[in-house]
Design goal:
single chain, about 290 residues, alpha/beta, Rossmann fold, six-stranded mixed β-sheet, four-stranded antiparallel β-sheet, 11 helices
């Protein structure tokens, strides 16, 4: 039996989390301009560009220490919402508050609270070692000297890369790259971690180890807020205590997994129900 089988809904530790809302999304709409084709520039040069609405009037709050699974089909608006929370995008309408800072008026302060773990292997310098990569990214976070060295050595032990720290990243496996990506974002000690399908492309053993790392070593020891984009119900049930469903730019559901289970629903049934019914949530605070 793997941890994906033995771990299920949140344990009693979640009952002691702080009630403070670390993330507040207030009536946010996000539109992207559609690039005009050459023919349109010639025939209608003064016509305003059309836009695509990726997120529509979304309002929600996430309390400190929660672990939220963000689910929905491709193109639903999940990545847009996560990038808005991380301060990588500015909302067309509305406001995003992270740790008391608006991503519009105090973007730098808001972004310090958020760490992204993207599932992209190009995010490292392949010809450098894992240790050298962490030194580089630590310098970008304005860390230096003994403090940076101590922080890097602690994180390398935390993610279990002691024997690979001095190896070039090009020789890392997918699981090792995921661990290094976690170490990289933890250098700055963010309060919020955003993870994009953290177990994708991992074999069952590496997946099991990643679950252990996220739950036992990272969340339990620091009570960080986790936002995890995933398509896998079993991953959501294992790693998270809440689930958020997004489709067509609308927030279709936001509930505690305990409540989902107490209503006699499997997560897949809950997901299917949210996807086949009209928008349900206007101001969710779970």
């Amino acid at each position: 039996m793997t941890k994906l089988d033995s771990l299920s809904y949140p344990d009693s530790l979640d009952q002691h989390r702080q009630d403070q809302a670390v993330i507040s999304v207030r009536d946010v709409t996000m539109r992207f301009p559609i690039t005009k084709r050459y023919r349109e520039w010639v025939l209608s040069p003064l016509k305003a560009r059309e836009s695509f609405t990726a997120l529509r009037h979304t309002t929600l709050e996430i309390q400190s220490g929660n672990r939220v699974a963000v689910m929905g089909p491709n193109g639903a608006g999940k990545t847009t919402l996560l990038k808005l929370i991380g301060g990588l995008l500015f909302p067309t309408e509305g406001e995003v508050i992270v740790n008391g800072f608006s991503t519009l008026s105090h973007n730098a302060s808001a972004r310090k609270s958020v760490g992204f773990v993207f599932n992209e292997e190009r995010s490292f310098f392949w010809r450098l070692t894992g240790l050298q990569n962490l030194e580089f990214f630590g310098a970008l976070d304005n860390l230096s000297g003994a403090h940076l060295r101590d922080r890097i050595h602690y994180l390398i032990r935390l993610v279990g890369l002691e024997n690979a720290a001095n190896k070039v990243v090009s020789g890392y496996s997918s699981g090792m790259k995921q661990r290094l990506a976690l170490a990289r974002v933890l250098i700055a000690e963010p309060d919020v971690l955003i993870l994009d399908e953290p177990t994708r492309a991992l074999d069952p053993l590496a997946c099991d180890e990643m679950v252990e790392l996220l739950l036992a070593d990272i969340h339990r020891n620091s009570n960080k807020t986790l936002l995890i984009a995933t398509h896998r119900p079993e991953e959501a049930m294992t790693l998270c205590n809440k689930v958020m469903i997004i489709d067509g730019g609308h927030l279709k559901g936001f509930d505690s997994l305990t409540d989902v289970a107490s209503n006699g629903n499997a997560l897949l049934d809950y997901y299917r129900h949210c996807m086949t019914h009209e928008r349900r949530y206007e101001n969710p605070v779970v």
